[in-house]
Amino acid sequence: MLQWLKLYRRDQLPGDISAGLVVAMMMIPQGMAYAMVAGLSPVVGIYASILPPIVYALFGSSMTQSVGPMAIISLMTAAVIGPMAPAGSALAGVLAAQLALVSGAVLLLCGLLRMGFLANFFSRPVMSGFTVGSAIVIAFDQLHTLLGAELPHWHAPSAALGIGALALLVLARLYGAGLLKRCGLPPVVADIGAKLAPMIVVLGGIALMSATSLADMGVRTTGAIPAGLPHLNLASSSSHWRALLQPGLLIGFIVFLMSMSGAQALALKRNEKLVSNHELIGLGAANVASALSGGFPVTGSLSRSAVNFAAGANTPLASLITAALLACALLAPTGWLSLLPLPVLAATIIVAVLGMLEMGILRTAWQYDRGDALAWGATCLGVLVLGVEAGVIIGVALSMGTLIWRASRPHIAVLGRIAGTEHFRNIERYPAETQPELLVLRIDANLFFGNVEAVSQRIECELATHPSARHLVLVMSAVSSIDTTALMALAELNQSVKRRQIGLHLAEVKGPVMDRLRNSTLLPELNGKLFLSTANAWDQLHTVKDVA
Amino acid sequence: MLQWLKLYRRDQLPGDISAGLVVAMMMIPQGMAYAMVAGLSPVVGIYASILPPIVYALFGSSMTQSVGPMAIISLMTAAVIGPMAPAGSALAGVLAAQLALVSGAVLLLCGLLRMGFLANFFSRPVMSGFTVGSAIVIAFDQLHTLLGAELPHWHAPSAALGIGALALLVLARLYGAGLLKRCGLPPVVADIGAKLAPMIVVLGGIALMSATSLADMGVRTTGAIPAGLPHLNLASSSSHWRALLQPGLLIGFIVFLMSMSGAQALALKRNEKLVSNHELIGLGAANVASALSGGFPVTGSLSRSAVNFAAGANTPLASLITAALLACALLAPTGWLSLLPLPVLAATIIVAVLGMLEMGILRTAWQYDRGDALAWGATCLGVLVLGVEAGVIIGVALSMGTLIWRASRPHIAVLGRIAGTEHFRNIERYPAETQPELLVLRIDANLFFGNVEAVSQRIECELATHPSARHLVLVMSAVSSIDTTALMALAELNQSVKRRQIGLHLAEVKGPVMDRLRNSTLLPELNGKLFLSTANAWDQLHTVKDVA
């Protein structure tokens, strides 16, 4: 905590200041836009961009993560509070803050319980399918704001403004950096400059609204924005807490996943190490802070963090500078912001989420593993058809389903001895000698509830095809763990072969596995012996036969 | 399908007839009791015991499974339909049948998609915790029927009858078989005879009600039972289907798990092989049949199947005989059954579920693996505090959580060469020689999304502690699969070491893994070579160094 401050070097300051400035200019339109996605008053997005990054700077472990509103989390927030309160209402604001508090508490609890491994619950294809599906939903949801009316109608002045802004932003995205480079700017500066297009378009929209009579023609604007800093805003009807518990849990989970995947990509570039348990605490504290300052659920945003990084952020001081600048913006007169036309804000949202339509992972998965590609498709479709919450559950179910399905087909090899050596190999692949009374099986998987049935069935199957076997040797060289379910199945196998007067022997059991097995009754009841090596088992069981 | 009929031998008939008879006598009180647990009219339990076992005999794969009402499935049914319709109402019956249809359809679909691997989603400790929690909930729910009034009140005549029946049943359970044996009955017959105690106590209760004025004193009975076979009963308000979809899915899942765990235990004793995909189809068809005959969700019951097995059942003919006998019972005058006192029925339920309070698995887990014991406790507590549906979800989450948590700590060994040999071993455990410019890591786990971050971090950590390494060799002898997420992480590792001018080499890649990798861009972009053996890598990379 705050280690970066103790080690702060003066030469890190310019980078942090420039990054702080750039991200603040990105944050104003983005925060307001994502608050709108969440069905909240735009100023809430700025509230949620002040305290959370400060708190994250104190507790988080990433140096360049920019914590604040994020499109997908806003979509999830809208899905929860939408049915409970009208968009933009005071109740919606209170519910959103409650939701952030629940998510934050969940994250803090997970962090204290050291449950950082939760980040491993989604495969990347599933994560990508979820992101793409959510991006499409968000973009589609903004169409009516962009066009100024519910589809299929449209309000001509709003639509002209919205589509115009959209065109400008798309052009800036495609050619902005190139144009700035040709104007002589250094590549890094040009890239960052292009990222400020939304702020420029927003300022242009405000200027247009104040100079023309578009407002009188019915173009909607954000409306009055209360000046001053946010204040504690959790007065609430207690009846809502229960309804927010399960969604808060899901949102906390996605807050963590989204932030980790972004932070990991950046940490890799800087050879920094992320500590997932610290991240849980940092994000949890940031969400609690968001709740206490009238905000809504926040997370680390990959796109914003990448800008922060590119603009030179060396330490979380950059985020502190951003937060300070946003606080100043709220303390200054905010009348000008009230003129911001909503169609322009919708255009910035659509362009931002179009950047999430990353198809590379789908392509890789399609070429490499059709199952993973199907999981991508099913998750994306799930979000589109059943909604973003169902999408999370489908994503987890698919990730876990793939895992269990793969585990349910463990590799087991019948071993034979390479003549004249002490080497044992799969008899299907090598010309190896076997003994009729000896069946040697190598289990190439950790034994756990997911594969224990398959392993048992395979062993029974091999025993059936080797009716003359009097000794069954399980070579455990590839087994690093045996859970309780597998232990019980081994004990059942032991009883079963005992009834058939077949010996059950274990060879090459790893140290940690053996330590565990000593706590069980399997070893004393084992109808056979333990062997250090397969060769030992081969020789001794062979000898026994010869003597008999 | 029906293979057993083609191979039927005459000497199998006596066993099947005796088992059919015994199970029918068990089924009448049990069916009625479990219908009561589900909040349905008792006769529904008998309906659900006729068509489902017949259909299961046609499609299932277990020879001795007795399919019909089961306590935990009834509890889950009650949890779903309880809030939607008053207990015992006609609507409750329609909803229960709809629920069976949804569960059956889900099971059939899973069977057709060959998703038998779903049986591997619960670890045994979680399954046991779920069963024990459910048993306690069921027993507690029956207390008010046993005592004839809502707690803390009680209705003296009902309570006397209920507690009397309970005492008799407990005594029969504890001493019944021993007593019968001392009377000279053979052990098997004595054990089976003791299992018929519920039927005898029920008959005694009916006799008592008809002989005394207990009914006038307010002891409730099952009431009029319509004679005749069930008829199609799915006229329904379509608005309910949606509400039943998710619970139907969960119930289908538990129907499958409960049936499989029971059937597996029996199949093991008979050296029979269960085909999980056939089981899905058999159970799915049985539930659809239950729905079409006015029943409710059914499954294979371990306790009843064990009696079926012990009473001599050789083939599903035993179940067909049971079904025929129950159909006859319904066609005969059913007036006598209407006198069955509910407190006695409650007593049979309580004794039946007390038999589920099996603590052996918890004991084993506690000794062997505290994590599994905690999962037992959390699942049991989840059922008790949050209900049976939440219990299923908690159970799956804990099973998966344990899995991902274990996966997130993969074993990776730094290898060195045993001097003068071609053997490579973990340098922490063996005195092995290393080369400063060569870092050889053996990855002892399949690479997938659950451990990919941990593996990457460990590799970076080893690179940091071996700053002189110019070549990183990953020994893949223990890696049987690499999923898309892991493939992408390997590609990132490749880019990352390339930037640092370190070679990335792969050794001992298994055949199937190599086939997969050929479909990716990792191999052409690899900043190093593939080696058949670690020794090859050691020699060649060493030589390169020497020459340089």
From TrEMBL, chains A, B:
<dbReference type="Pfam" id="PF01740">
    <property type="entry name" value="STAS"/>
</dbReference>
<feature type="transmembrane region" description="Helical">
    <location>
        <begin position="159"/>
        <end position="180"/>
    </location>
</feature>
<dbReference type="InterPro" id="IPR001902">
    <property type="entry name" value="SLC26A/SulP_fam"/>
</dbReference>
<feature type="transmembrane region" description="Helical">
    <location>
        <begin position="192"/>
        <end position="211"/>
    </location>
</feature>
<feature type="transmembrane region" description="Helical">
    <location>
        <begin position="374"/>
        <end position="399"/>
    </location>
</feature>
<dbReference type="InterPro" id="IPR036513">
    <property type="entry name" value="STAS_dom_sf"/>
</dbReference>
<dbReference type="InterPro" id="IPR011547">
    <property type="entry name" value="SLC26A/SulP_dom"/>
</dbReference>
<keyword id="KW-0472">Membrane</keyword>
<dbReference type="Pfam" id="PF00916">
    <property type="entry name" value="Sulfate_transp"/>
</dbReference>
<feature type="transmembrane region" description="Helical">
    <location>
        <begin position="248"/>
        <end position="268"/>
    </location>
</feature>
<feature type="transmembrane region" description="Helical">
    <location>
        <begin position="339"/>
        <end position="362"/>
    </location>
</feature>
<feature type="transmembrane region" description="Helical">
    <location>
        <begin position="34"/>
        <end position="59"/>
    </location>
</feature>
<keyword id="KW-1133">Transmembrane helix</keyword>
<protein>
    <submittedName>
        <fullName>STAS domain-containing protein</fullName>
    </submittedName>
</protein>
<feature type="transmembrane region" description="Helical">
    <location>
        <begin position="311"/>
        <end position="332"/>
    </location>
</feature>
<dbReference type="InterPro" id="IPR002645">
    <property type="entry name" value="STAS_dom"/>
</dbReference>
<keyword id="KW-0812">Transmembrane</keyword>
<feature type="transmembrane region" description="Helical">
    <location>
        <begin position="66"/>
        <end position="85"/>
    </location>
</feature>
<dbReference type="GO" id="GO:0016020">
    <property type="term" value="C:membrane"/>
</dbReference>
<feature type="transmembrane region" description="Helical">
    <location>
        <begin position="280"/>
        <end position="299"/>
    </location>
</feature>
<feature type="domain" description="STAS">
    <location>
        <begin position="428"/>
        <end position="548"/>
    </location>
</feature>
<dbReference type="GO" id="GO:0055085">
    <property type="term" value="P:transmembrane transport"/>
</dbReference>
<feature type="transmembrane region" description="Helical">
    <location>
        <begin position="91"/>
        <end position="113"/>
    </location>
</feature>
